[in-house]
Write a structure and sequence with these properties.
Blueprint (H helix, E strand, L loop, with lengths): L3 H11 L2 H6 L1 E8 L6 E2 L1 H14 E12 L5 E12 L12 E14 L2 E8 L2 H10 L1
Parallel strand pairs: 1-6
Antiparallel strand pairs: 1-2, 3-4, 4-5, 5-6
Amino acid sequence: MNNILERYYQCFNNGAYTGMLELLAEDVLHEPCQGAPRIGKHKFTEFLQHMERCYLEQVHNPCIFYSADGKRAAAEFELTGTYLVTDGELPPAHGQTYRLRVGTFFEIEAGRIKRVTNHYNLENWLQQISRA
């Protein structure tokens, strides 16, 4: 059985972004919960650098599903994080912590992740960081 997503999230939790990038196709499509899609490993690298600067996050208890043909997959998990640096026009950061349920959908082609689509409740995140 393919374990590419298990490796992807292990790299994420270890801050091993080079390892994450090695699992991606060169023309990976990244569809964030909010905002414009990004195409290409270079754009995904920029995204990771931005996230590393603004947030410190960990994935907990990922439940990962693969389609029978291995071409699609999904993961549901709890994400905990700390908001480190103000991200653009979002509320000011001052070390607020948060906890979210996240769902991510993937396409896999030739042993590489071809698409990453993230879904979470942005309104809930905004409420959590505004209370802190």
